[in-house]
Design brief:
Length: about 550
């Protein structure tokens, strides 16, 4: 890598490096360094990989969680999902979980991808008012009979605003460029030059892209909670992504009945799972037309459905959701006051600003990556109707993003336009959950068909990606892969050791397996901070 005349476009508290990563202790005001000795660093990479004559550099913000034991193996890079989501803080919170899962012998490396955090953040607006409007217009398309048309028109406005205010940045934040950044990090680590990577959700699309672009650099790669990369790049909507969403929604009620009224209050209503689900659909229809005043909060279709769809990510949220639904359906009225406090908790200006940044970054990255466009509302409506037919619970949720992408105007410097029929140097491990409301098992199976020698590990439970399904079997399987390169037998299915409503977590799995030296409270506490911050892996 050429090191002269470096121009840094972003700065952080850690020392800047040009050809090597300069590590230093992380800022304790940003990361809880009392749990693990996190290190932060920077790496200068080409701003524009397509223009060798352009010597401008971009500084990537990185975090490292040092290996817990020896002998030390090669570093593992992570992407927890997105696109548009900064990763550094979330990786630090999940470090007590990720270290045991990887066997503890590797440094874990995370980065804030282009367009997020301080890494040339993508912002389509020039004032707070426009940002707030852009955020608040992102409503679910079935929330009224006029919403879909408004979203289509709003998508045109947003696409034009982004072209006007962020064209230069938007051209530099594609997934193809982030894939090249990953390889730059691998080179700068000065190990063996091979890629070790674990990607979740959108991180699987990034993983599929980097392995397709650099198949000869693959040592060990896990794609976990797999998006369909063909649709991500080429379809007007991610149709396959929502295939099993309704099954997961139904599972909230069927597993509630199985858990019993002591663990799930809805189970005390002497109703079947189907009847409980029907009651909730009726409630959604009621608040759509007549929003419910709950203290100082107006509980409408968006608010209620937002709580439900967030819970599709992880069964850890199901007990609180079931309690909330039971109060809304059956009272008592006195409980609504406490519920109102719960509904407004955490809605400060910082989280609002974070939401704005994420909304625009998702558009900048996903819409730029996606090559599909439609020119008329009628064409777009056909795609939306297909989404509605695929999933009742999720069909209307991502439509606002698709309305922007369908009319996107910024052209990235580089798009990945290849296929995903790949022979990597070493085979990939691909993980899919039996019931995943965001990335169905069939997507893992479809991607595996294109990667020679890859194996699909199925985790039999509800939730998004294996990280949300605590399982001793998964722990043993993935740690054996990272430490010894052992692939599971084709067709292997891991059972879950934290059933819905059980209150069990990865901390219990680690304790029963006798692995990891970290305190149980650190594992649990990291997850709680992640939940409380509203940072779930996004679409």
């Amino acid at each position: 890598m050429k090191c002269s005349r470096t121009i840094f476009l972003t700065l952080s508290s850690a020392a800047l490096g040009t050809c090597a990563i300069q590590w230093a202790p992380c800022d304790p005001t940003k990361f809880n360094t009392t749990i693990l000795p996190f290190q932060c660093g920077n790496l200068a990479v080409p701003l524009d990989y397509t223009d060798p004559a352009n010597e401008q550099k971009l500084s990537l913000d990185l975090i490292k969680i040092p290996a817990a034991s020896g002998p030390k193996l090669g570093s593992i890079l992570f992407n927890l999902g997105g696109p548009g989501v900064p990763n550094l803080r979330d990786i630090s919170l999940l470090a007590p979980t990720l270290l045991p899962l990887t066997g503890g012998q590797s440094d874990l490396i995370g980065l804030d991808p282009r367009g997020t955090g301080n890494t040339i953040p993508f912002n389509c607006t020039t004032n707070l008012a426009d940002s707030y409007t852009m955020l608040t217009e992102k409503v679910f398309s079935n929330s009224s009979d006029v919403t879909l048309g408004r979203l289509w028109s709003r998508g045109s406005i947003d696409a034009s605003l982004c072209l006007e205010n962020a064209n230069e940045t938007g051209a530099l934040i594609s997934t193809a460029f982030v894939a090249r950044d990953l390889i730059s990090i691998v080179d700068a680590l000065e190990e063996d030059g091979m890629l070790r990577y674990w990607g979740f959700s959108y991180g699987t699309t990034l993983g599929a892209t980097v392995t397709a672009m650099f198949p000869e650099r693959v040592d060990k790669v896990i794609l976990d909670g797999v998006q369909n990369p063909h649709e991500y790049y080429h379809a007007i909507a991610d149709f396959e992504e929502w295939t099993d969403s309704d099954k997961v929604f139904a599972g909230i009620f069927s597993t509630c009945i199985e858990a019993g009224p002591e663990l799930c209050p809805l189970a005390a209503r002497n109703k079947t799972a189907q009847e409980l689900e029907s009651d909730v659909w009726d409630l959604l229809d009621t608040v759509k037309h007549h929003p419910l005043p709950v203290g100082s909060v107006l509980l409408d279709y968006m608010a209620l459905k937002g709580m439900i769809t967030e819970a599709l990510y992880t069964t850890e949220l199901w007990p609180n959701l079931a309690t909330t639904l039971d109060i809304l359906l059956h009272g008592p009225e006195s409980a609504l006051t406490a519920l109102a406090t719960y509904l407004v908790a955490g809605g400060d200006e910082t989280e609002l600003e974070s939401g704005m940044k994420t909304i625009t970054a998702i558009a900048g990255i996903h819409c730029g990556d996606n090559l599909a466009r439609v020119s008329t509302f009628k064409e777009f409506q056909r795609a939306v109707d297909k989404l509605y037919n695929i999933s009742r619970i999720m069909g209307d949720v991502p439509v606002s993003r698709y309305a922007v992408c369908a009319q996107w105007k910024i052209k990235p410097k580089e798009n990945y336009n290849g296929d995903f029929i790949v022979r990597t140097k070493k085979p990939l491990l691909i993980i899919g959950n039996t019931y995943d409301g965001h990335t169905p098992l069939r997507s893992a199976q479809n991607v595996s068909q294109g990667y020679e020698g890859s194996v699909v590990l199925e985790v039999n439970g509800y939730g998004h990606a294996s990280i949300n399904l605590p399982s001793k079997c998964t722990l043993e399987t993935v740690s054996a892969y990272w430490v010894n390169g052992i692939m599971p037998e084709p067709g292997k299915v891991c059972q879950v050791d934290a059933p819905p409503y059980s209150g069990k977590s990865w901390a219990d799995v680690f304790e029963s397996a006798g692995v990891g030296s970290l305190q149980k409270r650190d594992v649990y506490g990291g997850w709680q901070m992640l939940r409380n911050g509203g940072r779930m892996w996004m679409l």
